[in-house]
Amino acid sequence: MDSTTAATTGAAPVQLPPVDSGTAILTTAGYLFLLLAAILLAFWLLKRFGMPGSLSSGKGGPRLVSRLMLGNRQSVAVVRYRDRDMVLGVTEHQVTLLAEEEAREEEASPSPSAGFAAILKRGSTDAD
Q1: 95-102 and 75-81 as β-strands: parallel, antiparallel, unpaired?
Q2: Which long-range contacts (CB under 8 A, 24 or more apart) does 81-85 make?
């Protein structure tokens, strides 16, 4: 019946090209893996070298000096950022600045023995 309708309309039957699905799938998968590898390489390079001016935890980024857990999801943290020591109250829903002062040069890199209590004592003696 198709040959009679094609003969009456004067158009030749449409032939679909054969599809080589094996080669097409392998080529597509190869390009996808290549794209994935390029994305992972870019991520690694950005993580390794960082971007200038970004908020990374590099030399100028914020650094956690000490942290004291008060409850299940509450804590007090001392964070050093741009030569400033900030005492932060951290809860599940908010972060509150409790105190802030200039970081001292001799304490620029605190020793592991200097605990949270020593940092808080330093802040309380400076307030007096």
Answers
A1: unpaired
A2: 85/119, 85/123
Is 38's pLDDT higher than 70?
yes
Q: Is the pLDDT of residue 52 over 80?
A: no
User: Is 14 within 8 Å of 5 (Cβ atoms)?
Assistant: no
Q: Measured between alpha carbons, how far is residue 69 from residues 44, 47, 116 in Å?
A: 33, 29, 11
Q: How many CA atoms lie within 13 Å of 64's alpha carbon, on the beta-carbon side?
A: 8
Give the 3-state secondary structure of residue 29. Answer: helix
**Domain boundaries in the chain?**
19-49, 63-127
107 or 127, which is more confident: 127
For the whole prediction, is pTM greater than 0.70?
A: no
The continuous run of DSSP H or E covering 123 comes out as: helix 116-127
